[in-house]
Structure formats: C-alpha cells, structure tokens
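User: Reviewer 2 asked us to show a designed sequence for the structure in our supplementary figure. I'm pasting the structure tokens here. Could you produce the per-position amino acids so we can include them in the response letter?
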C-alpha cells in the first residue's frame, strides 16, 4: 500500500512538473528555459521518489527513440545536400582535414588535462578494490579493424545498426558522384537530386517537430538518472566524479572558449548561449549520437554556421575525437586505477596515455557507455589492470552527463572554428582575384 501511495504521489508530482514545464515554455517562448526547468524538476523528483518513477524511464527512452529515429535520415540527406552545395572538392578536403585535426587535437589536450586533474585530486587514494563479478572488459579491436569498420561493406546493415561513420562515408560517395554528374548532365540526375532535396526538407520538418518535445524528454531522462543513482552511491566515489566534472569545465573554459574567441573571433558568451540546447540535451541524454539533430539545429539556426560545415562536422564529431569520453575520462580512470593498485606511472606512461586517447577516440560510437571502450584501450596499452575500471561503473551515468556535454561542445566549437577559417580563406581568395 505504501508503494502504491508513493507511486501515486510520484505520478501526481510528475504531472504538476509537466504542467510547469509547459507553462514556462508558453510564457517565455524559449525552449531552453523550459528545458532548464525540466532539468531542475526532474532532478528533484528523481531524488525524492527514488525507485518509484519507472513510468518516467519510458518517457525518457521514448524521446530518445524519437531522436534516434531521425538521425540516419537526417545525416544522409543533410550530408548529401550539404556537400552538393560545395561544388568544389578542394573545399571539401580542406574542411575535412581541419575538422579531423581539431577534433583529435582537442581530445589529446583533454587527456593532458585529465592527467593533471587526476593527480591533483589524488583520485583513488584510500579506495580499496573490491572487484566486480559482473564486469567484463570489452574486446579491443585492432586499429586496422577500426579503420575497416569505417568502410560501408553493407550500407543497409550500417543503417540498421546505427553505425554512423559508414553511413557518412557512403553519403559522401553519393554526394561526390552527384556533383560530378550534375556538372556533366544535370537533366539526367535531376529527378534524383530533387528527391534528395525533398527528402531533406521532409526530414527537417520531422526534426523540428521532435525537437519541440525536448523539455519533456530531458525531464524523464534526468529524473530516471537521479532515481537510479541517488546520493549515497555518488558520495562513495565523489572524488572521481568531482575530478571529471572539473576537468570538463576546464576543457570548456580554457580550450573551447579561446578557440571560439581567438581563432573563430566570435563572442564566446553568445556562442554558448546559442548552442546551450544541444549541451543540455547531451548532458541529460548521455548520447552524442542521440543529440546530433539538436547539435546540427543549434549550429545552423542559432550559431549561424553554414549547413554544409555544420552537418559534416557534427556527424563526424559524434563518433570521432570526443574530448571527454575519448580524452579526459580515460586519463582520469588510468590515474585512479594506478593509485588503487599502487602502480607508479612515469612520464612515458603519461605520454602513452595521451597518444592512446587520440588514436582510441577514432570511431567511438556516440552512445551512452561508449567511454568504456576508449578507457579499456588506454588501460591495456598503459599496462594497467582492467578490473579497476569496474569500480567507477556505479557512477558512470552521472559522470557520463558531463562527458557527453563536453563531447558535443567540442564538436560544435570545431564546427564554428572550421567554418570561420574557411570563410576567411575564401575571402582571401576573392581579394587576391580582385
């Protein structure tokens, strides 16, 4: 009877919260304000009604299913449509090189920040290894297998399995062929080109509809996370959680912000305001892949990044680089495991950790828990016991919130930087011709 009464109270509180979220959205006219309200309300309800809000898990998962539903069509049509606008393969090469360089470069820097913060916080000090019977380290693929996985051997299977890089590669091939044929015989491929453009418009319309439900999806996701973890579990590994959050904040403040203000020459305050919806959804959904439609929407419609640069860089960044999941988090876990097992790390180890994070971050799937793969790679290469990683799994979802938000932020920073650099390059060319 007590459980039923608690469940009824939880349902009532959730309905009241939903009404408040709706009211905030209607009165302010700003989805970001409604989403922020959803974050606060969801956190409170999750802590208060711990274990009594299974229905909100369905809300959160249902929203993520809607997001994932549109990802593949959005990526395919966006990339093909965007690359066709280039009409110059050299421009595409230039943008691609810059995007990869910034994504991987900032990930290497993030790993260095993770090492420093891990040492300063002395993560692992006083922690006793208890093991985890249900923990199994994931198999580490060879580097050649990682790169071969980028090639769409069966594009239908890649689409079905949500493997975004092979879909991106296939879409690029289609776009290049379309550009070539369009220059040779535009009438011959006009029907296909019109089909792609129409599909893109329809997909964007669906995307805009799904995005209207962001506050409610965020509410369900954050309430479920708070309910499952509570405060007791978090406190047992508070130092590790704090280290990750501090490292993420430092990455955004001292790496992302200067890139926006100095390299892109943009107002960083305005930029972060523009991309805040994507940062917040990434924080609550814990999925770079699932946040992709919002990432693209924030870049194009709010940060005013060109469509072709936004879609290409955002799609690439959802599975490559990943500043937090691929960089700072594996580094902090490595410091943690070394301390727990009383293993002394030398400068060689630190350099090896940074280099491994850069390579290991290539091809990471942008879904919840993907950091486990990159961390497994780093620990193995550094010669550290994989068992130690099991200890932080209890608070992984809380850590993953900050990680994913930092990943998506890094991707959006890369997009705006690449866009501005390319614009200046084009301006110089025009000036030289004039």
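Assistant: Here is a per-position design you can include in the supplement:
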């Amino acid at each position: 009877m007590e459980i039923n009464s608690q469940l009824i109270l939880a349902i009532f509180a959730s309905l009241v919260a939903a009404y408040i979220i709706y009211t905030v959205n209607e009165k302010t006219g700003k989805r970001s304000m409604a989403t922020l309200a959803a974050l606060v309300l969801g956190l409170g309800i999750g802590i208060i009604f711990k274990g009594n809000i299974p229905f909100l898990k369905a809300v959160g998962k249902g929203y993520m299913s809607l997001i994932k539903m549109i990802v593949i069509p959005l990526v395919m049509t966006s990339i093909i449509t965007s690359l066709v606008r280039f009409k110059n393969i050299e421009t595409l090469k230039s943008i691609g090189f810059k995007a990869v360089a910034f994504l991987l470069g900032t990930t290497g820097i993030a790993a260095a920040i993770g090492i420093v913060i891990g040492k300063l916080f002395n993560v692992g000090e006083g922690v006793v290894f208890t093991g985890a019977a249900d923990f199994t380290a994931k198999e580490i693929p060879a580097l050649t297998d990682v790169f071969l996985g980028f090639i769409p051997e069966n594009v239908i299977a890649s689409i079905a399995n949500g493997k975004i890089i092979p879909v991106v590669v296939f879409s690029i091939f289609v776009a290049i062929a379309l550009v070539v044929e369009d220059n040779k015989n535009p009438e011959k491929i006009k029907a296909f080109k019109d089909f792609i453009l129409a599909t893109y418009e329809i997909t964007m319309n669906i995307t805009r509809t799904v995005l209207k439900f962001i506050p409610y999806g965020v509410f369900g996701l954050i309430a479920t996370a708070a309910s499952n973890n509570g405060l007791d579990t978090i406190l047992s590994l508070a130092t590790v959680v704090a280290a990750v959050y501090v490292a993420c904040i430092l990455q955004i403040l001292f790496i992302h912000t200067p890139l926006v203000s100095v390299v892109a020459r943009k107002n960083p305050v305005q930029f972060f305001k523009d991309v805040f919806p994507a940062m917040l959804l990434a924080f609550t959904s814990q999925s770079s892949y699932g946040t992709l439609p919002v990432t693209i929407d924030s870049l194009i419609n709010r940060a005013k990044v060109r469509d072709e640069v936004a879609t290409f860089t955002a799609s690439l960044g959802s599975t490559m680089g990943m500043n937090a999941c691929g960089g700072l988090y594996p580094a902090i876990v490595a410091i943690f495991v070394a301390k727990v097992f009383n293993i002394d790390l030398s400068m060689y180890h630190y350099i090896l950790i940074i280099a491994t994070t850069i390579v290991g971050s290539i091809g990471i799937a942008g879904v919840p828990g993907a950091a486990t793969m990159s961390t497994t790679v780093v620990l193995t290469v550094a010669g550290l016991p994989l068992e130690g990683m099991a200890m932080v799994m209890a608070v992984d979802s809380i850590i993953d919130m900050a990680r994913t938000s930092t990943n998506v932020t890094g991707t959006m920073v890369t997009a705006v930087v690449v866009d501005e650099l390319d614009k200046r390059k084009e301006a110089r060319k025009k000036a030289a011709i004039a």
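For the response letter, you might also mention the following. Residues 131-138 have pLDDT under 50 and may be disordered. The chain has one domain: 2-433.
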